[in-house]
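task queued by scheduler; priority normal; single chain, no ligands, no partner chains; default sampling; output format set to structure tokens
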Amino acid sequence: MLKLLQKNNIQMQIQQKPIKDLIPYINNSRTHSDEQVAQIAASIKEFGWTNPILVDGINGIIAGHGRLLAARKLNMDKIPVIELAHLSEIQKKALIIADNKLAMNAGWDFDFLALEIQSLKDEDFDINLLGFDDKELNDLLKQETNDPTDGPSGNGSLAERFLIPPFSVFNAREGWWQDRKRAWLALGIKSEEGREIGSTNVGKNVPDYMAGRGNNEGGSIFDPVMCEIAYTWFCPPKGLVLDPFAGGSVRGVVASKLGRQYIGHELRQEQVDANIKQGIDICFDDLLPPAWICGDSQNIDKTCVDVKADLIFSCPPYADLEVYSDDPKDLSTFTYPEFKAAYFEIIKKSCNLLKNNAFACFVVGDVRDKKGNYYNFVGDTVEAFKAAGLNYYNEAILITAVGSLPIRAGKMFSASRKLGKTHQNVLVFVKGDGKKAANNCGIVEIAEEMLVGEN
């Protein structure tokens, strides 16, 4: 027998007792339908016996009548019980009622609940074991997938109001996220165009966590949903977004479609040409079509001297992880100390072009050196913005697709104990006052009518 707890010199122990010896309370006011008993039985099969039945010292049941019925349904012979022989008759009567009523008095945070259930569903767990009926599950999951026609009335759920709940975990594996990403790409975005696969490692051996950029044939591309979140949360309508590490077209196209002016700074002319073509094809009738400048971002203070940005937003090169060109000015060809010095300079010059009381947001992931140790690129990014005079304001984890990681992670972990990375860091900084910056952004408006392909 296992001693569970000792209080007031009374030892309460878990014992195994035959089902046939247990006596239900004849005046039990709590009812148990066949459906609920089946749910309890399914829970016991999945999780084991996690909650012993409470008995009164002479095998009379105080709490656990539903569990007893479930055990009988499972043809069990013995079940765990705790003897509460020290209780008076009045205490036993009161506990029979209180054990049921106190649990009923608890409530739900439905946004957290929806997130948890969706995460279980994503892992192929049988969510019917949770005890909710089909309608309750459908309502919760529709709330989590942000279907605007099915959410609760009134102010709506957090997902309805802000696209996703403003928590510190962004799960890009969720079904609604993938659907919305496909709807964005269906506009004709081909952000991988403009990359030439030659002597560099563009598109080669790109790690799975960079699928947050949307891994595509020509290398990695930025996830348009992450882009949409950043613009709608941290940039006012018609505001100007400055991107010092533009890469492909996606961040510019999404900004244009959401009514933000976008200026992207990109080193390679072939990438700028491809981006401009994309912008003309997709954004030709937009109020604020995107613009790209070809040049070294270390000179962004000169090429964008008249810019007054409402948001700085980018996904910078991850040191030498993915080499984009053979140009000696390309940061991805630098050693890490050289990269870090140039990176700090570019961030400082970019932040000087940012308005006061405004946000900056970088999506980054850490990178290993040639010996397999992390550079601390995420920490260096934080320090770069702080050195530029901004305050570190928010951090979120962007959970990205697993892809081929399970195949590689087993070998990698066995050989070196390195963990497979499936996330990036979303870092948000503020120049000036956070509340004033939020006020400048206005209310969050979700653009539903534009993504006609979303389902």
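post-processing summary
- Residues 1-9, 146-155, 197-206, 211-218 have pLDDT under 50 and may be disordered.
- The two ends are 56 Å apart (CA to CA).
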